[in-house]
Design goal:
With about 475 residues, this protein is α/β, with parallel strands linked by helices. Helices cover about 40% and strands about 25% of the residues. The protein is built from 16 helices and 19 strands. The two termini are about 45 Å apart.
Length: about 475
């Protein structure tokens, strides 16, 4: 047996997954509560001990890992126009698995520099201006960034006419500076893959050590990528397949965590009829968004704020007073596991509310506009109404008896008719919690990873 161990260092749990390559099967999974503030290695040791109780002693031929520990990969980005180069930078960072904590547009100020210093990002992505377009903004922002006395690396990916000059300004301060091709070389044309490759390289080079994971790196073959990047890779593999195996087709996926809710779509998202015109930046076929204010524990207060106590009470069946008190408790006790009916009801309401809000933010919208030429429909973002597959993962979903009901909150809602969410979809639940592990495995063995996902990810009926 050729056994591979796949590790996911999370913000609240370390999860381990054992895979038999020859048999294309799952050997087992386990998880243990962990915090980087104490010792992330302790969580790994406890998870491995649990796994070995299930599988018995195993010799691992390879050990690979991904990480979202200690807040994950935190990035700040900047561009010229909010809906153009600033949005292109944000999409590039999210697609590489980062958590974008601030986006700047136009010329930054000294106050912005102070804010960036306080945020202490892991990486700054500096863009602005299409090639042949505005040069002044990105040059000005490079000088502002050079004044920030915090040693984060900067990726320069803006107007090629001045990108080299920006690189010199920043490198002269001793800061690690990398120049990449423009994220938007032409108006409304994205070129985000080179920047994403550089973000992942910096993650491996610098961020692992900064997040206190370097000791664990000695125990494993390599930390390959941020966890969201691993999940995204798994979703692309499941949708598109390989040369030998077909995928299941276009999909939307939701990863509901304690601190964030991530949404992925692997779908073109083009308009469904000829009388619709597109507005804004074309979005990548494989897209990820992350909602840092929506989560089951650390960010449960954000769900309450987004929905309001009355709506969350309606979802959970509890009184608004119980909802508010329960959310306050969860924020202070992120390791809480519900043991009674009220606790389970609150978890259901939070999960349904987070999924509903996160997918609404991810999907595109459509509006009716009247022009001198007559009625026109204007679409912003991706139209996902025709997507027929919905995948859900995250502890709050996979261990919940009402997982199908939670999933249905990702679908079309007549109360929000402008939101272009899937109208009806076959629901798949990641019961074994293996998506990040399969994204890691896919780096070397994509067909094995796809075979295991098709066996392990359970179909849960059709939601409408």
């Amino acid at each position: 047996m050729e056994a591979v161990l796949l590790i996911d260092f999370g913000s609240t749990n370390t999860k381990v997954t054992g895979v038999d390559l020859a048999g294309e099967r799952l050997l087992g999974t386990a998880a243990a509560y962990t915090t980087v503030e104490s010792d992330v290695g302790q969580g790994l040791a406890e998870a491995l001990e649990k796994l070995q109780k299930e599988t018995g002693p195993i010799t691992w031929v390879k050990r690979y890992a991904c990480s979202s520990a200690a807040g994950g990969l935190r990035m700040v980005t900047s561009g010229l126009v909010p809906a153009l180069t600033a949005e292109a930078s944000r999409l590039a960072s999210l697609g590489a698995g980062a958590k974008v904590i601030r986006v700047f547009s136009y010329e930054m100020t000294d106050e912005d520099a102070a804010e960036i210093a306080a945020l202490k990002p892991d990486i700054f992505l500096l863009s602005g201006g299409v090639d042949g377009g505005n040069k002044d903004c990105i040059l000005h922002n490079a000088k502002i960034l050079a004044s920030v006395d915090v040693p984060f690396p900067v990726i320069v990916a803006g107007n090629r006419a001045v990108a080299g000059e920006c690189e010199k300004i920043l490198a002269a301060t001793g800061r690690e500076t990398i120049r990449c091709p423009n994220v938007m070389p032409q108006l409304n044309k994205l070129n985000i893959e080179p920047v994403q490759d550089e973000i992942r390289r910096l993650f491996l080079k610098r961020i692992i050590q900064a997040k206190g994971l370097s000791r664990e790196q000695e125990l494993i073959s390599g930390i390959l990528m941020p966890t969201p990047s691993a999940v995204k890779k798994a979703m692309e593999l499941l949708a598109w397949g390989t040369e030998k195996q077909r995928g299941i087709g276009e999909l939307v996926a939701v990863d509901l965590g304690g601190a964030t809710t991530d949404v992925y779509s692997v779908a073109k998202g083009s308009p469904q009829s000829g009388d619709v015109v597109m507005k804004g930046l074309p979005e990548p076929e494989s897209k990820r968004t992350v909602e840092g204010d929506l989560g089951m524990r650390y960010s449960s207060g954000g769900v309450l704020e987004a929905l309001g106590a009355d709506e969350l009470a309606g979802l959970s069946g509890l009184s608004p007073e119980k909802v508010s008190a329960g959310v306050e408790y969860l924020g202070a006790h992120p390791d809480f596991i519900p043991a009674d009916a009220d606790g389970a009801a609150l978890d259901f309401g939070l999960a349904a509310g987070a999924v509903d809000t996160a997918v609404s933010r991810h999907a595109g919208t459509i509006e009716e506009v009247y022009t001198p030429m007559g009625q026109v429909f204007v679409q912003t973002g991706k139209d996902l109404t025709g997507v027929r597959r919905l995948v859900l993962t995250g502890g709050a979903v996979i261990h919940n008896q009402r997982a199908g009901e939670i999933a249905s909150h990702a679908l079309y809602n007549k109360a929000k008719p402008a939101s272009l969410r899937p109208r009806a979809a076959d629901i798949y639940i990641d019961k074994s919690y293996i998506l990040a592990a399969m994204g890691l495995l896919a780096e070397a063995w994509p067909d094995t990873a796809l075979s295991i996902m098709r066996k392990e990810i359970q179909e849960y009926g059709t939601g409408k």
